[in-house]
Design a protein that fits this description.
The structure is a homodimer of 189-residue chains. Chain A has 189 residues and is mainly alpha-helical. In chain A, 68% of the residues lie in helices and 0% in strands. The first copy, chain A, contains ten helices and no strands. In chain A, α6 packs antiparallel against α8 and α7 packs across α8. Chain A is elongated. Chain A starts with 8 loop residues before the first helix and ends with a helix. The interface between A and B is large, with 42 and 42 residues.
Chain lengths: 189, 189
């Protein structure tokens, strides 16, 4: 019989910060974070300089899972249009899952209202990665104005994620026709 | 010589709540609100049941100014396409002004993460008013799928306002071509 080791305090703090900041916002208190993670405040401050650093590190740690949950696989042989549409099909599927509150990397920046906050910097970088994916596909797919198309796609992504996150739209039947229209107008193949 | 009366405590609290919650988020403390408004906490609680009620009332009070800042005048004789585009030209202009942090009615809902909060209810209602404007114009303009077009337009509005609010996009050269493409695809005249 194998026993699974309980994650250490650093791991538990990072996971708790990810979950609670997503559910409750970045204003979640240090007491709540430490209590939920089962870590003393003293230990937390030995592991992280500040709550800001804990939050930023937890966002950074989630970046690869975020990308994996949205982007097509590297060996995905479909065309560029389909690779872009894949992201929006994934977003639509995620929006339909219970507990969805929109893109955490958008919400953090809206909540913090401070582009210099370490967590805002991480969030901005992660979303720039998504915009860069759109731009690269737009170029490779022969879009007339790849920069404009990339701005449009991330705009639709953020708008969709925000509206689904607040429960204003379920996104079903919205993402695909909207993105197709923009891809068509850009002449993307 | 006329003297301008200083606004009363209720007015000062509502204005302060509008300004500080927009700049700092809905987590702004009661102490900061009262101190900035120059009103004692005791007086505040005589005027409002709670900070939630103060916040909700301040959002409600701003609703007509929000609509006036975006919608075409009632006697605006331009066509339906131009009336819709007017909203996005206004958003683009607002996004270029210093201190712009995006649509407050979107931000409040993202920050509160609770659709039953009195301020979320007000915010949702205000944005439903904007969606209703888009739907009415889409119907009057002969859009093939007015419901889809209205969802697309408010999606673009929220996406643009969110991205400009966090400084990720200045919106210049983005709003008008995006909206025109969607209006064209919907066959709206």
């Amino acid at each position: 019989m194998t026993t699974e080791a309980r994650p250490g305090p650093r791991e538990r703090l990072l996971e708790t910060a990810a979950v609670l900041s997503y559910q409750q916002g970045v204003g979640v208190g240090i007491e709540a974070l430490c209590r939920t993670a089962g870590v003393s405040k003293r230990s937390m401050y030995q592991l992280f300089d500040s709550k800001d650093e804990l939050l930023a590190t937890s966002l950074e740690r989630g970046a690869s899972a975020f990308a994996a949950s949205l982007l097509p696989a590297a060996d995905d042989a479909r065309g560029h249009r389909e690779r872009v549409l894949h992201v929006f099909e994934r977003l639509e599927a995620q929006a339909g899952a219970p507990g969805f509150r929109g893109c955490r990397y958008l919400a953090v920046q809206i909540e913090l209202k401070n582009p210099d906050h370490p967590a805002s910097r991480v969030a901005r970088q992660v979303k720039e990665g998504l915009a860069e994916f759109f731009r690269a596909e737009a170029v490779a797919g022969g879009a007339g104005s790849p920069d404009l198309l990339a701005r449009q796609l991330i705009l639709v992504f953020d708008g969709g994620s925000a509206r689904a996150g607040i429960g204003a739209d379920h996104l079903a039947g919205l993402m695909t026709p909207t993105v197709r229209t923009l891809l068509d107008a850009a002449g993307m193949h």
